[in-house]
Model the fold of this input.
Amino acid sequence: MPEISLLGWFHTGIAIVALITGVYSLAKFKVIQLEHTTSRIYLICTLIAAITALMIFRHGGFGPAHGLAVLTLVALFVGMLAAKTNMFGKFSPYIQATSFSATFLFHMIPAITDGLMRLPVDAPIVTSIEDPLLRGFYLAFLIIYVAGLSLQIRWLRKA
Done:
């Protein structure tokens, strides 16, 4: 199992805070919106996690996790545009929900990958990025994202 650097530990800790506050925000408010303190904490921690992910090169170069970090930054930017401007008109709340919820999906993919490739320490559950178990998790996360986003859109339409 590869060692985790100090930056890696910081990245992991901030990402865990993001996930906890993100789950709380979604459970309590149904959407991640700037009006809620926990949502702002989630978004700030997500931003920091994405930036620090771009500084971690465990496998020697730019990889899929870096690509997800870039997608996270784009989703944060688009979500903030939707939240702070009227650029998207009546679609702004939906663009915001889609973007901010996508960041949650982008957190989960490297989290499960790294977790299963590192734990348990003496015999990780997954030894290859190509493992079908990982693909199953990715598909499950995508289905949860689509279902959750559908519920958010329905709730936003009613609100």
